[in-house]
Specification:
The chain has ten helices and seven strands. With 262 residues, it is an alpha/beta fold.
Length: 262
């Protein structure tokens, strides 16, 4: 599949306040000269990022303070996409919950499912509808997780939400064949971000992928219009193992980095 020419074009980035989304927005402006639409829940962080992009790269950007799990937030995101005629989207917004399954509050799971499943699904459907009307080629990349393939003990609901993402993207890639709209999933393992810091990992930051490197690979996958991308050799070996070894063994291995609750 031919690469998407995004230089000078607007590209939506959700979850841009921090972590992988923030790093991806910087990569888009620096390496591809694309104009990012910065979406997140923290306006101050978004404005700081907008100023950094302008100062370092001389690239324009737009800011949308919006929460993906609200109807109003999704409407404001897609209105900006339509107004600016954006041709690509990198969907990095998401939340997690950490700990034993029965120890977390239902309110935590409610927000996770509303954001990672319901909000994501509605936003994706709106974007697909907009992009299908474009005469030019367009692309959407959803940030998923390698944990969606291995299962993710101690982040079980998060892993399940990302398994949903993978299944949905795989189905849509077939539905959208021939439309000019490509959809893909990006499946990183652990990334050195604030989300990983919440996870109480046994070995701390050891083995986590640098956020900037991971973001560069994600943006490359978006531009290359890849259907599935697993970044990093170790992650690809884990992905292969998840598809060949018994599921219960893979799940046990996936639990090893986590501190087990007392």
């Amino acid at each position: 599949m031919s690469a998407l020419p995004i230089a000078g074009s607007w590209v939506l980035v959700t979850g841009a306040s921090s972590g992988l989304g923030r790093a991806a927005a910087l990569c888009l402006a620096d390496s591809y000269k694309a104009k990012p639409i910065l979406v997140g829940r923290r306006m101050e962080s978004l404005l700081d990022l907008q100023s950094e992009i302008e100062a370092r790269f001389g690239i324009a950007s737009e800011v949308v303070e919006a929460d993906q799990n609200t109807e109003d937030g999704r409407a404001r995101i897609t209105a900006k996409v339509e107004r600016l005629d954006a041709i690509a989207a990198l969907l990095a917004a998401g939340v997690t919950s950490v700990g034993q399954f029965d120890a977390n509050k239902i309110s935590d799971y409610h927000r996770l499912i509303e954001t990672n499943v319901l909000g994501f699904t509605d936003l994706l459907a709106r974007l697909v509808s907009i992009f299908k009307r474009r005469r030019s080629r367009t692309a959407i990349l959803a940030i998923s997780s390698l944990g969606a393939e291995t299962s993710l003990p101690y982040q079980a609901v998060y892993g399940a939400s990302k398994a949903y993402t993978n299944t949905l993207i795989q189905a849509l890639s077939v539905e959208l064949k021939g439309t000019g709209v490509s959809v893909g999933a990006f499946l990183p393992g652990g990334i050195d971000t604030a989300m990983a810091a919440q996870s109480d990992l046994r070995w701390g930051r050891m083995g986590l992928m640098d956020a900037d490197r991971c973001a560069a690979l994600a943006v490359k996958a978006l531009v290359s219009r890849r259907r599935v991308t697993v970044p990093g050799l170790a992650n690809r070996l884990t992905y292969f193992a998840s598809r060949t070894l018994p599921r219960h063994l893979v799940g046990r291995a996936a639990a090893l980095p986590y501190r087990r609750p007392e």
